[in-house]
C-alpha cells in the first residue's frame, strides 16, 4: 500500500480499493422496503466513476462548481458524494427541500420524493434518483428532472478528471460549515480518532444520526479509518441484534446494541 497521505476524498476510496477491493465496503438496509444492498470497494468505485463522468461531461462539473445533494443516507448518496469530490467540486449538503441556497448550485441531485417542491424553483440542472435497490430509474414520474439512473448507466467505468482535484478547493458547505477538499480528509481523520473508529471495524450507522452528523462523520471518517459501513434506513429496532450478528458489526453510531461498542461512548 502506498504511503502517500490522502489529500482529497477520492484518495480515501482509492485506499479502500488497495486494502481489499472485493470485501464489503458499504451495505445498505431499508427496513421500510426490506431491501439489502451490498457493495464492495470495486462496485462502489464503479458507481463513483460513472457519477463523476456524468457530472463532468454532461454538466461541466469541476473545480469551482457546486453540486447540491438533497438525498437521504443511502449507498447511492455515498456514490454521488464521492463522484462530486472526484470532479474536484464542492457539495452543498442539505436535507431541506425548499432551501433557498439551492439556486446557487450548478446541479441539484434529489430523491424522487423530494422533487416536487424543487421543480418550482429556478434551478439550473435537476436530476432525480429513485433510490431503487438495483439502481433502476424513476417510475411514475413525468416532471422536468432528468433521471439519474438512466443518465449514469452508459457512463464510463473509469474516470479521469479534466483538472485534478485541488485540496485547497471548496469541498463542502453544510449549514455554517465550510471545508476544502483537503479539509474534508483532515476532518475525517480527526473525527475517526475522536469517535474511536478503528481499522477493520464494521460500523452500523443509523440514518437519523448520520443525517444530523453529516457525510464527514458517516462516510468519510470510516473510510479514513479503514472501516466498512452498514447503513440502516427506517430502522426496525427489533432487527438490529440479528443484523449486527449477521453483518459481523463491531461498532455502532446512533444505536445501542448490548455487547457492541458504541462510538463516542466509553467501552
From TrEMBL:
The name this protein goes by in its record: TIGR03089 family protein
Classification via InterPro entries: ANL_N_sf (IPR042099), Rv3268 (IPR017523)
Domain of life: Bacteria
